[in-house]
């Protein structure tokens, strides 16, 4: 028996059916931990091994880079050697990036285009608002959000011009139009463009679409409930009339509506593909029955499109602990000491523990406690590696190498390290660039430069330009990594770090980050080469920039560490022991959602959190919490009341109103469970 046959045999009947079904489009809709992702992984191997589809004709899309890496690894275990070469397992944004890179000429972009991150995009929007409208740019955040929504909905500026909206919307639409024009001028795309541009391209160039459809013989999508309009369309376009695809999802885990995700895309499939087959999975292989029951009862409070039952035969398991703490400090203290105690008692690893919370800001206290107990931990989605100043500096150099028209990158590094090029010089250079309609870097080489700048300034600018051109040439003609390393030494960036850091130790740490960045670049080039791509520097840098935006922690090695992350980031993952902190009204559910009457999405978030736990689930809250420098009394989260009270065991101080109220709710939820389980 081949490894893949063996693997399929281990699956239950429904899972097997989902793996082997290829005649029409397939939707697997099922609750958490029922093996949706496992089905995708096994199916990829099955398609290659048994159906004879070539790996390079299969495209699998997942939600995070981490998930993509894991999936590739698992397929690699089932299918050895060359057979899995060329397989595409990526995020939507990575897929879009690949398409844009291959088709950039048709799209009117030069190769080596830049990808603007949130911050770059925000500065540009601000600048437009200030320059064009004499606005203070204070609303730039909202405008950025609005533009992002429009892009996800596939609405272009010209579509908006004739639609009457509020004055704010009309103003935002005007900024949108300018913003897109600037991006084009900078030879840059933003995060949302990575999906939008390929879908528009496919719409407008059927011949290009046909080419891609010929490549994609089978497509698989995980976490389908979180696709937005443009992602939905991209899938639809790529699979075309052939419609060979499998998507898996869980409407109860839709937690990205705020970013334009449309769980309705699940029902839309039936409309767009009448031959759609639907498979439901019901057995959960992750959690104890008690944890599942809690999750089922909680989510039963939301209205349901799809009827789902979820059960597990892992036994009832331990009660769910609810720990009430006096303060947020006590809460963090309690979780940290509890991990030490539990780990000793259970004899397991730190990596068996995950701490989840609603917002990134909640990590600070618990981090401090973990540090003081010397508990190793890994923080996902915290301060980004890529948002560190030194990394941003060198990234800007790299961006300028692949896209000399990236004015943002140019401005960032023109004086880092100091080159005595002052603001007046830059203003004049900028005016010249505007006049000639070229980028700042190109303007550095303009013959008229010495007419607007002093002799000294001209010399400095020219020197920089020539040097940068040499570096670029070395990158493209020789070994790119050597060229980048030489560039970093050339500018003596290390000395610069010593000048700008608080201590030699800090400077050293920052320099290590730079070498880590160079290593990442090298790895990225190697990876591409292994997959049979050219692995050029443009591609490597584009991938780094994208990874930066998508997943902030990325390269952290998976050693024995407690995992800290937001509930959003925990999607798809599982841990034997899970803590959910800050179970308080206004935190979970979040205040904004209470105000917007959007409790259902918060409940789904809680559902995602609960269902990450395999064996032990602990919920904590603080009776007092600091906000805006003041200490407030808190109210325990309504979700605590919605849980089956008979399965909870309380520790610590309870808030006054709790016992009776909770008991009553317990009875109510018990009856809802009974009806759910049908007895
Ligand atoms: P989520 O909704 O959280 O993304 P999921 O539906 O994708 O969950 P998986 O992550 O694929 O579920 O599977 C959950 C766990 O169950 C994994 O540890 C997986 O290895 C295990 N599993 C899946 N199917 C089986 C099976 N047939 N037998 C034993 N274990 C299984
Ligand atoms: Mg999954």
From TrEMBL:
Catalysed reactions, semicolon-separated: ATP + H2O = ADP + phosphate + H(+); Couples ATP hydrolysis with the unwinding of duplex DNA by translocating in the 3'-5' direction
Residues the record lists as binding ATP: 30-37, 286
GO molecular-function terms, A-Z: 3'-5' DNA helicase activity; ATP binding; hydrolase activity; single-stranded DNA binding
GO CC annotations, alphabetized: cytosol
Keywords recorded for this protein, A-Z: ATP-binding, DNA replication, DNA-binding, Helicase, Hydrolase, Isomerase, Nucleotide-binding
Protein's GO biological process: DNA replication; recombinational repair
Keyword flag Nucleotide-binding: yes
Enzyme Commission number(s) from the entry: 5.6.2.4
Disordered: annotated span: 656-679
Composition-biased stretches (Polar residues): 668-679
Residue span(s) of domain UvrD-like helicase C-terminal: 289-572
UniProt xrefs under Pfam families: UvrD-helicase, UvrD_C
Start and end residues of each UvrD-like helicase ATP-binding domain: 9-288
Domain of life assignment: Bacteria
Class in the EC hierarchy, top level: isomerase
Subunit composition and interactions: Homodimer.
Role of this protein: Rep helicase is a single-stranded DNA-dependent ATPase involved in DNA replication; it can initiate unwinding at a nick in the DNA. It binds to the single-stranded DNA and acts in a progressive fashion along the DNA in the 3' to 5' direction.
Family statement: Belongs to the helicase family. UvrD subfamily.
Name recorded for this polypeptide: ATP-dependent DNA helicase Rep
Organism listed in the record: Litoribrevibacter albus
Gene name as annotated: rep
